[in-house]
Every structure is written in structure tokens, then in C-alpha cells.
Write a structure and sequence with these properties.
Layout lengths: L2 E3 L5 E3 L10 H9 L14 H10 L3 H8 L5 H4 L13 H15 L4 H26 L12 H9 L1 H4 L7 H16 L11 H9 L3
Antiparallel strand pairs: 1-2
Helix pairs in contact: 1-9, 2-3, 2-6, 2-9, 3-9, 6-7, 9-10
Length: about 210
Amino acid sequence: MSYIETYSGDKFFAIAEDLEGINIDDIAKALSHTNRYNGHTELPYSVAEHCIHVASLLPPELQLMGLLHDASEAYIADIPSPFKPLIHGYEELEDHIMKRVWRKFGIPLELVEERYAEVKHADLLMLCAEARNVKKSKGELFNDVFKPYFEKVEQDERLKDMPYHVSPAIACGLFKKIFRMISEGKFLEGPFLRHEDMVKFLMVRG
């Protein structure tokens, strides 16, 4: 059976049913080294940083789901969404891995089924907020289906100028710290507004 060696030295088998090889250190490290938009940004912008921002937009009970919503990309890479349907079997494999991730970190599949639409809404808001800041077209090349999300971003001062492009080390550290915090019943109180806020959050104990 095919597998990859993860950052921590574990084996991860993509089509296995068990939860072996799935751990937060590997997910944080891999996503902090994986660029959004297949690397087509002026400066590096990681999937880990995107996931942190998504979690920050969600109510407490959904923040862990938001933080981990792209965790499969730690194992099978970040394929641009328009191309996923063109790669036979990719979306099924992605779904299979995500179900294992939800189980590993104690997120009930019933909760995913009932409320993942809220996570996806935050994901799309961040996609459009990011586009204004990290894409050369500022989102003008995006499909019209995203127009309502761009309008919401324009109406929300917090989203218009969120900080981007923290280093992989900071993104990795923040991802793990926020995971631990949520696991202890502590939650983000809203989006980060400046780079300095993200660095301070990482440096403060607790």
C-alpha cells in the first residue's frame, strides 16, 4: 500500500481506514509550507495562515473545524479548486482523508454534516478577502458566483485589510497554539487585524 513519510517521521497511508500517521505537528508544518493559489501570489501565503483566518471568523464551536478544514492538503497537496474535478478520484480521496481527520480530532461527523456550510462560507469570505490583497487582479478575474462574498468583504472593515504573508515558522506556531487553545476550551475572539497581533499572540504564554 502506498504511503508518504511525514515531517515527524510517521508513515501516512492515503487510503487506510485507521488514524495512524495523522497528527497536528505534521499538519501544521506541511500547511505552513504549502502556498495558497498554487504559489501564484506576489509573496508566499500559506494554507496554514488561511486556515487560521477562517477559524477566526467562526463561532467557538466551529473554530476547530475551520482550523482543520484544509488538513487533507497536508497529505495530498493543495490542488486549485477549478482543477479538482479534472483529476479522477481526487475529491473522493480528499473526502476520505478529511473524514479520518474529523475522527482523529474528535469532531463528530454529524456536526460536519449539519454545519460545514458555515465553515465553507467563512472559507469563501477569506478567499475573496485574500484576493483583494494577494492576487494581481484583486479578484477581478474571479467568477461572478463570488460577487456576493466580495460585497460582504467590502462592507466589513475587519476583512478588507487583514494581515497576510507571515513566515512559515510563525504560521506553523500559530496553527499549533490555536489548536491547543481550542482543545482546552479557549477560543479566538475575532480576526487578527495586524501582523503584530499575530506575532504577539504567538509569543504570549498560555
